[in-house]
Write a structure and sequence with these properties.
- By secondary structure, the chain is α+β, with helices and mostly antiparallel strands.
- Helices cover 55% and strands 15% of the residues.
- Helix 1 (9-29) runs antiparallel to helix 2 (36-53), helix 1 (9-29) runs parallel beside helix 3 and helix 4 packs antiparallel against helix 6 (141-155).
- The chain starts with 8 loop residues before the first helix and ends with a helix.
Length: 369
């Protein structure tokens, strides 16, 4: 049920304020009995509930007030916005970021649900909503829990942690933060695609450099896989959108690393093709061709046509996921007037082939300039 139509904006602001105030007063009564993190969790729950029913401005107000209340009343020293402990400041900062992300994403999911309900039958809408809710509960809450858990251990005063253990916990925080950032980026990118906001910024791109940079960023995810590069040494520069192409390659390699067994080989090929008018001795069409393949199990034959559908996850998938990665890849490819195809290799594994018709510039021409 949605109460936004029944509550005017000013009423929503008052309800948001009173909800946070009520939890704050309760927290003050039991402040000496529980750690302030308990109050923080309660405030996050209140913000989440408000996001289900209210418009975004009222929810953002609740998120900001909850962060200020947590700092002012429950983080020592009390009744000031000053924070002495670095760990407390980090936890407060994460609380504020998570509260804002939670408010914005919940609002976006609600808007997406309304759009879906307007186009599809009730049965398909409920199925899609349940799939999204299930995937997000895992893909977003898991890294958030890992971050909060690691910080909680680091904060314990009565436990002596070795330097090695502290480093592992910091690595866990960084790893979980990167995973959370990846999921949020996918959601934001899908919003941009849905709104038609994507406008490619074409510039000369070194495809080889992009591939190596992406693989370097994904070194942790691909540490149990073998990466093979088959890149044309004379690959020219192409006029493409650097950021969009980087996200395309990132999503495809990340997808391969998450949905294939350990030890699988991921092969990345890049070359160019030219259609020539032999009578006039001129180049007609220049193509940048990128192929990312693996020798894993491939896609189920009866589901391969749904690979690029939004929120589609295969029934035998063990790693979860929001089902947005490949959909975003297709959208970003098409935004640059490119094409993407997917098929299973005869010997096993999936093969993604990208083709971009784009201006090219030989590397030696750039050096001569």
């Amino acid at each position: 049920m949605d109460f936004t139509s029944k509550n005017k904006p000013i009423q929503q602001y008052w309800i948001s304020f009173l909800s946070i105030a009520t939890v704050t007063l309760f927290g003050l009564l039991v402040r000496d009995l529980f750690e302030y993190k308990v109050v923080g969790y309660l405030l996050l729950v209140v913000v989440s509930i408000l996001a289900i029913f209210f418009e975004i401005k009222a929810v953002l107000l609740a998120a900001v007030l909850s962060a200020l209340a947590l700092n002012f009343f429950f983080i020592k020293p009390y009744y000031t916005f000053h924070i002495d402990s670095t760990e407390d400041f980090l936890l407060f900062l994460l609380f504020f970021i998570i509260a804002l992300i939670n408010a914005v994403l919940t609002h976006k999911f609600k808007r997406m649900q309304r759009a879906i309900q307007a186009k599809e039958t009730r049965a398909s809408t409920l199925k899609l909503y349940n799939t999204l809710l299930d995937s997000l509960s895992h893909e977003l809450r898991t890294p958030i829990s890992a971050i909060l858990g690691s910080i909680d251990i680091l904060q314990q005063k009565n436990v002596s942690l070795s330097t090695e253990t502290q480093q592992k916990l910091h690595n866990e925080i960084e790893k979980a933060s990167m995973k959370l950032n990846y999921q949020v980026e996918n959601l934001l990118n899908m919003s941009r695609l849905e709104s038609g906001y994507i406008q490619p910024k074409l510039d000369w791109c070194d495809v080889k450099e992009i591939i190596y940079n992406v693989c370097s960023r994904l070194s942790e995810e691909t540490k149990n896989h073998k990466i093979v590069y088959k890149i044309d040494e004379n690959l020219p520069l192409f006029k493409l959108d650097y950021g969009l192409l980087e996200q395309i390659i990132y999503n495809l390699i990340y997808n391969a690393s998450q949905h294939t067994p350990k030890g699988v080989t991921i092969t990345i090929q890049a070359h160019f093709d030219v259609d020539v008018d032999y009578e006039r001795h001129i180049d007609l069409i220049k193509k940048c061709i990128i192929t990312i393949s693996d020798d894993g199990y491939g896609f189920p034959a009866d589901e391969i046509d749904k690979a690029f559908d939004k929120f589609h996850r295969y029934k035998d998938s063990k790693t979860g996921g929001t089902g947005l990665g490949l959909s975003i890849v297709k959208g970003f490819v098409q935004a640059q007037n490119g094409t993407i195809t997917l098929h299973n290799a005869e010997e096993g594994g999936a093969v993604f082939r990208l083709e971009f018709v784009a201006e090219s510039l030989p590397l030696n021409a750039l050096k001569n300039e």
